[in-house]
Amino acid sequence: MRGASTHGAAAVAFTRTFAALAAAVAFCLVGSTAVAHADIPTRRGHECATPSIDRFQQWLASGEGTTVPATGSLLVRERHGYAARVEFLGTEWHVAVVWLGNQFEAQADLSDSAGFWLTYSATDDLYVQLRSASRWSGGAQWLTRVPSTDGRLVRRFFSFAPDGWTWLPELGEPSHSFASAVAEARGLVFVGKTPNRLAFRGLRVNGYRPPCR
User: Fold this and answer.
1) Would you indicate the residue range of the signal peptide (predicted)?
2) Domain count across the chain
3) Burial of 186 by CB count in 10 Å (0-12 exposed, 13-18 middle, 19+ buried)?
4) How far is the C-alpha of 44 from the C-alpha of 85, rounded, in Å?
5) Model pTM?
6) Assigned domain for 16 exists
7) Contact 65, 88 (CB under 8 A)
8) Which of 15, 31, 132, 156 is deepest in the core (most CB within 10 A)?
């Protein structure tokens, strides 16, 4: 029974890795995983009745760490749509949140998703955590690095392959598996401990279309 369980887990991991590779290859056919601002469509936020980026309506400053804005929505009108802008100040942990289901109580099963495309600019490195409904609170979360773009707007693919996600000793080791976080995903949480100027212009999750609220 234990061998069968291990074999099943390996099969799931192989399937997700293969799907991530396929998605990345498909993406590369139309452009690099990090492309210049001039190549990125600027039409955003027209699908929902309230401001949104690719139907994601809840981009929030959580009040954790010194940020501008300190709390509330990060969405601002920009070009033909919206951008989510936040500045991290000082050398402390800062937090900015995206609710995947556009309300806190919602969650999404992303087990079959290869990953997500993020269009953003950042003046320093940071991390994005995948937080689950049952393990939402606390810093001990699965995360992956979001590289600095030196302030340029780029589009980058982040795979849900498990070997691309880790945790930081300073924040603690997660008590739950990465697979469980993917299966009951509530939000993407951007965290960083250095001064940073961030702007988000696009978020597309493979195989998932958020509901407008």
Assistant:
1) 1-38
2) 1
3) buried
4) 14
5) 0.81
6) yes
7) yes
8) 132
Residue type, 127: Y
Identify the domain containing residue 130 by its residue range: 2-205
Cβ atoms within 10 Å of 68's Cβ, excluding its own: 12
pLDDT along the chain (213 residues), means of 10: 43 50 44 43 64 98 97 94 97 98 98 98 98 97 98 98 98 98 98 98 98 96
How big is the CA angle at 81 (ends 69 and 185), to the nearest 5 degrees? 65
Task: With respect to residue 110, please indicate whether it lies within any of the assigned structural domains.
Answer: yes
Is 141 a member of any domain? yes
Residue 213 forms part of a structural domain:
no
- Cα 88 to its chain centre, rounded Å, is 17
Cα separation, 188 vs 51, whole angstroms: 18
